[in-house]
# Entry
Amino acid sequence: MKGSRLPPLRLGNLNGRSPNSEGEWVVYWMTAAHRAGWNFALERAVEVAERFHRPLVVLETLRVDYDWASARLHRFALDGMADNAHAFAGRPLLYHPYVETAPGEGNGLVQALAERAFAVVSDDFPGFFFPRMVGAAAHRSPVAFEVVDGNGLLPLRAAARPFPSASAFRRFLQRHLRAHLRAQPISDPTAALALPRLAALPPEITDRWPAASPELLAGESAALAGLPIDRHVAPTGQRGGSAAAAAALGQFLDRRLRRYAAERHSPDHDVGSGLSPYLHFGQISVHEVFARLASRLGWSDERFGSLATG
# Structure
């Protein structure tokens, strides 16, 4: 599908197939960027849906057989799904949060949606089981299956070679990063959405792969107890999701940033950002972190140095 405001380096078609002109909807399968804002892949799905006047289906899935699956990790991920459900409520799109209750139970869901889709968009994430999982889904999809890189400030494809050292990579960044900083994702890509809205998915899909219950999205103990995950690793008091991530970023900027440079290496001072789990789960974007930090400091790319010393 030609034509996009997104940087070409961030876009890829995994199966080389074309959209289905008779397809009923555009699917965004949210696999790594678990957030409703600052999300290049969601932005691309919106772009395709608006251009071709199709309803948008946002599918977010949570399997039970990932490595170290536990009540703690599941609860953190479910908090994120609950935040997304809240963010998408009232928007002209259909959000379908699906949580497996047995290993392999979700197999076939993406293919079932793809068979009736105009096109599928997903996240381009290089680690864990994601390349294998998304690649297999793209291979089975009868329609165009695009992936979008929203991982970092520098697109993955911008660095065409491995670097022998951290200093060599820093020199590369100093020479090339500035050109990529102005291509930022939209903070709320569904805010002004003008699309036909799909009232519901077909029953042959929802009967087999129903949306997660409100109790499960709320992370209630009884709902988690029914899942085949390690319950000995219990949830902590730390909430997951985009709202908690934004609050953690705000706390860092307001209370810790001014001390960070001087005290970050001291174990006696708690000046870290606290964003690690939210970045890991894709519940906050590095682009949002950078934009808010730059705004707080009054920084612009005009302050880039001319030397690339590493």
Remarks:
- The CA atoms of residues 154 and 177 lie 6 Å apart.
- The two ends are 39 Å apart (CA to CA).
- The first strand starts at residue 11 and ends at 13.
